[in-house]
Amino acid sequence: MSGNRLQGACKTHRTSALAQFNSWLTLRRLSLCLSVPVLCAALLLAARAGFGQANPAAVADPHPGAEQVWTPQLNAAERCTACHPGVAPPSAARPSIQQPGRVDPLVPHHTKDWGCTVCHRGQGAAAEKEQAHQPELAPAQPLLPTRYLQASCGICHRADLPDTPDLNRGRLLLGEFRCVGCHRLEGIERPAMLGPDLTDIGNKVSAEWIYKWLKEPRTIIDDSGNTAVNGYQMEPRMPQFRLNEEELRNLTAYLSSLRGKPVEPYAFDPKVVAALENSPDLVDQGEARFRQMFCTTCHSLAVTRGGETKLIGGDIGPEMTKVGSKTNPAWLAAWLRNPQAFLPKSKMPRYEWSDQDLYVVTRYISAKLTDPDLLQGVPKLDAATPEQIRLGRRVFLKKGCGSCHAVPGAKLQEDFGPNLVSLGAESISHLHFGDAKIPRSLTAYLQAKIGDPLSVNPTADMPQYRFNSADLDAITTALLSMTGAPGSGGMERLIVPRTPAEFHPAGAFAQVYERYQCDACHQFNGYGGTLATDLSYEGSRAQRQWLIDFLKNPQTLRPSLILRMPQFNMTGQEAAIVADFIGRNLRSPAVNPAGVDPAQFTPQMAALGKQLYEVKYQCQACHSIGAGGGYVGPELSNVGNWMTAAWIAAWLKDPQALLPGGIEPRRALTEDEIKALTAYLVSLRQSEPAGRAAAAAGVGQ
Amino acid sequence: MRKHFAFVALALCLGAGFSAYRGGAAAQADPRQKAYATEPDWNDPQRLIPLNYQQARGKRLFYQYCVWCHADATPAGPSNRANLNPVPPLLNDGAALNGKSDEFLLEITTLGGSAMGKSAMMPPYGRTLTREEIQALIAFARAIAQPPYQPPAPR
Q1: How many Cβ pairs closer than 8 A exist between chain A and B?
Q2: Which residues on chain B are in Cβ contact (under 8 Å) with A99?
């Protein structure tokens, strides 16, 4: 390979070999299967044949004839195109030539403005292929492996881009797994609550449970050490700290000594208790209510079917399969009635509980969501000695637990871990590889360090996470994008900042919003969770009465979804407050409520609309009305009571104008077709609005 | 012209040498190393198919727009495919799609089934997705096809 010199290539360009080179380019167009290595090799051979003895000095002197790109804006001179001559928009004849060798038409940065190394890294000015590419020879800036390439987008684009899913996910994970608890990271939002406040932990759980959790902070493990929900793994937010036996015992002693304020047991109405206490189906009733209230929208439960354990449910709150073995019923009841009294920043909504519901649900949890073997293997723990408690507190601070958890008499620990805002530009001479048998490169280091912190430093304090390889790549990508503050000289102008979204609910609505934590799942003007419908334009879409009925008794709108809106048992007054706020404040400028007058619809129009729906456009491929139809879009049998005519018409005209990125295909409907379809859809009403009918029939009681 | 021929021969020999060499290394090489993304072979999830930039983009679009009808499992649970009549081909169904030209696939995705004399249950995406996005979708379909897709020889 020693002949594979860029010198040769440059020389090739500048001399009569150009003729050969050109004919060779023609060949490239002729032969479809010619791949890049072949190109390089052919080039190399051509160079060797006549010009093998190229003068190396020619390279040091950037001659105007040499293939070199200079980007003054970035102060970069590079020679990549000497070997990668195909870096030009692909021709129609050869649209799919592999990288490197072309500028992808979809990447909106052209090499003539940006050069190559700003994104691909590598030493662009190097004279030899190895020096340009390989980590050992290009330690200052080795080539970035393709699978982390999205990191380069993130250097300037601090806001998420639609085409950088790995980068976006990595950023999300850095916040979700509380990396920001210990490290300073550019642009990663700090979650409102890093970890639970531990002031009362001794009242909540037993010392044995604390010991078990500190040793291994998860309760369900399959053979490979993981559980999966819908294909993705569910990791507890708390990592594993690799504590030795003594540390475990001392820390357990300290934590179980934290008994801030004792839990006041909730006094159930004795009549309710007397009526239910001995009822044989007490636990079944509890399970039914648990399911109807859709606790599993946020919490998952492990379900074993056919020998395979899967977590079913959401991941907003902790996994709960064995929570009954963790907490006692008195604590549970007090928590469920008012979670924010324990953890002010908790995302758990404050349900409206009847004594009956609260009683049966807590009984169900304590009886069924348990595991008698949970604490198996936990040694007998004697009463904590003051010495143990003192040492335990020391472990707490030494391990940085105080970065995420509040305890009495200590401020949250800040900047416990190293500052990582410019990790992505770190030189490998600053990294400690220890004895790790890994390539000496930043990417290999990051993967090793996050995968197993001890692999590069046997005395590391950093805890152990268990990411699957896709998530590990995503996190590596996000870290690589953090290259520090932009240099001077105009570079800072290139940064596209992330603008944090905000939403400020007001008035009576604000209280209901806080109580039910609407933003945990719903988006409001770009702020909030993404689990459920974006409500920014809900006021243009939904009719007031429908909203009230829905809030009081949520029904399934999209048959394909597993996760549903929980039943909070909202009062009529609360529902009206929410509906009024939505109607007034959450409107789309693209929908004019007066623009469509349902009174003008005739039965003939509706009949035509039905035809269009069923025959010409076959909407039933995705939507169902009653029995027949597809699962993809919302169920439409009550759409006339649900949506406003103005919304339906605007949606049919251009769905993406109301929901950017929405999946409903935009069709070329005529004005008359839109009218007819709207007329048909608004005629679809259940005789009584679904909510009221269901309530009357006793559903959810 | 003879010179060209000599070059083709040379290039092919070299190419063969190279791929043999790379084939040897590929036994342990991580297929993700040189790829923007990967997709498990739908018929053999152990096998990862490396995707280039365009195919990776197609993958993202597929899982957003098309997975509901052209796959048997979706991110949100049950697939809609069984509800449809005619039942749409799985996107990796080489037997159904390999014989169709890129142009045909582009047109039916852009204009919808009814415009191409097929079922209206295949919606038109020409006003929702750009031409480049639809090309990316086709590139993804070609990449995951089983049996594998062979592009037609250039004329």
Answers
A1: 134
A2: 52-53
- Min mean pLDDT across A280-294, A423-437, A683-697 is at A683-697
Three-state DSSP class for A491?
Answer: helix
Amino acid at A59: V
Are A224 and A310 found together in one domain? yes
B42 near A CB under 8 A:
no
The phi, psi pair for A140, rounded to 5°, reads -65, -35
Nearest-angstrom CA–CA distance, A237 and A397: 19
**Containing structural domain, residue A46:** 5-143
Q: In a 3-state reduction of DSSP, which class is residue A112?
A: helix
pLDDT at B20 (0 to 100):
32
- Cis peptide leading into residue A100 (ω within 30°): yes
Asked if residue A384 belongs to a domain, the reply is: no
Residue type, A644: T
A571: confidence class by pLDDT, cuts 50, 70, 90: very high
CB contact under 8 A, B11 and A32: no
Whether A151 is covered by a domain: the verdict is no
Measured in degrees and rounded to the nearest 5, phi and psi for residue A311 equal -90, 130
Tell me if B52 and A34 make a contact (CB, 8 A cut-off): no
- Ranges of H-type helices in A491-644: 507-516, 538-541, 544-552, 572-585, 603-611, 639-642
pLDDT of A349-366, one tens digit each? Answer: 999 999 999 999 999 999
Exposure letters A447-481 (e unless 16+ CB within 10 A, then b) = bbbbbebebbbeebebbebbbeeebbbbbbbbbbb
List CB contacts (< 8 A) between A631 and chain B.
Answer: 68, 78-80, 83
Per the CB < 8 Å rule, is B52 touching A473?
no
Is 0.90 exceeded by the ipTM? Answer: no
pLDDT, tens digit, 9 for 90 and up, residues A506-549: 899 999 999 999 999 999 998 998 888 899 999 999 999 999 99
The answer on A173 and A205 residing in a single domain is no
How many Å apart are CA A431 and CA B135, to the nearest integer?
Answer: 43
pLDDT class for B8, splitting at 50, 70, 90?
very low
Candidate from B37, B76, B121 with C-beta closest to A560: B76
Q: Cβ A34–B11 below 8 Å, yes or no?
A: yes
Considering only CB atoms, which chain A residues are within 8 Å of B150? none
Q: Which of A531, A534, A538, A518 is nearest to A564 (CA)?
A: A531
Owner of token pair 């993981």: A226
Predicted local distance difference test score (pLDDT) of residue B82: 87
pLDDT value of position A558: 67
Q: Judge whether residue A132 has pLDDT over 90.
A: no
Domain ends where: A143, A178, A212? A143
CATH of residue A186's domain is 1.10.760.10
Q: Among A446, A469, A494, give the residue marking a domain's end.
A: A494
* Chain-chain contact of B75 with A30 (C-beta, under 8 angstroms): no
Q: Do A27 and B4 touch (CB under 8 A)?
A: yes
